[in-house]
Write a structure and sequence with these properties.
By secondary structure, the protein is mainly α. 92% of the residues lie in helices and 0% in strands. The protein folds into two domains: 1-62; 64-97, no CATH class.
Length: 97
């Protein structure tokens, strides 16, 4: 489970990094445009970009336990059932060895 979760976390972080990079590329293209309306809207877009970057930073700093708890909460009752089953599996495996 831990390896799967680590992989999922890394995948989410890479996905957000890719999206942020794409946004940065588009921002540079917008800055190169001389149309005045582009620059008016760009300030608002840059504020959203800053929020995305902040979210990415917090994702990088989350512990696996925090990720696990968040995923269980998002999954609702099925996530709780899965978490309980995983805990039981670990318990049984520990004592069956």
């Amino acid at each position: 489970m831990s390896n799967n979760l680590e992989h999922m976390v890394e995948q989410h972080v890479r996905e957000y990094e890719s999206r942020l990079k794409h946004v940065d590329e588009l921002v540079e293209r917008a800055r190169a445009t001389e149309h005045p309306e582009v620059h008016k809207e760009l300030d608002q877009i840059l504020a959203h970009r800053a929020e995305m970057a902040s979210e990415l930073d917090s994702m990088r700093l989350k512990s696996l336990q925090d990720w696990r708890e968040e995923e269980i909460t998002k999954a609702g009752p099925m996530g709780i059932w899965d978490a309980v089953a995983q805990q039981l599996e670990k318990l049984v495996e520990r004592f069956e060895r």
